[in-house]
Amino acid sequence: MILLLILLVVSGAGLIVFILLHSGKGTGLSDMISAAMYNTTSGTSIVEKNLDHITIIFAVVFILTLIIMMVVWPQGTISA
User: Fold this and answer.
1) How many Cβ atoms from other residues are within 10 Å of residue 11's Cβ?
2) In Å, how far are 1, 13, 50, 77 from 43, measured between CA atoms?
3) Which residue would you say has higher pLDDT here, 27 or 2?
4) pLDDT tens, 51-79?
5) Cβ pair 12, 18 in contact under 8 A
6) How many CB atoms are located within 10 Å of the residue 42 CB?
7) Which residues contact 64 (CB under 8 A, 6 or more apart)?
8) Is 54:10 a contact under the CB 8 Å cutoff?
9) First to last CA, the chain
10) If we measure between CA atoms, which residue out of 48, 70, 49, 61 comes closest to residue 14?
């Protein structure tokens, strides 16, 4: 049960970090990282695609963990 709480916190923190790494209009943190690593536009699209995939994985893990916790603890109380 504690594993679910740890998974929820880690996936939530990862989701926040990877959402913040997305670029808004060419001024995001991921643009600075990709510009330092790649000088072509094809490198940027690869970085953005990987960032999208990782963000989706964190979101799915976060949502599934929330649903499992709602089933395990329906009243919202955690008894250790």
Assistant:
1) 20
2) 41, 26, 11, 47
3) 2
4) 989 999 999 999 999 999 988 877 756 66
5) no
6) 8
7) none
8) no
9) 9
10) 61
If one counts every other C-beta atom within 10 angstroms of the C-beta of residue 47, the result is 19
Asked whether residue 36 carries a pLDDT value surpassing 90, the answer given is no
Instruction: Write out the two tokens for 57.
Output: 């994985």
Asked if residues 71 and 4 have their Cβ atoms less than 8 Å apart, the reply is no
Q: What are the helix (H) ranges across 1-80? A: 2-21, 29-37, 41-72
User: Cβ contacts of residue 4 below 8 Å, gap of 6+?
Assistant: 65, 68, 69, 72
Q: Within 13 Å of residue 31, how many CA atoms lie on the same side as its CB? A: 7
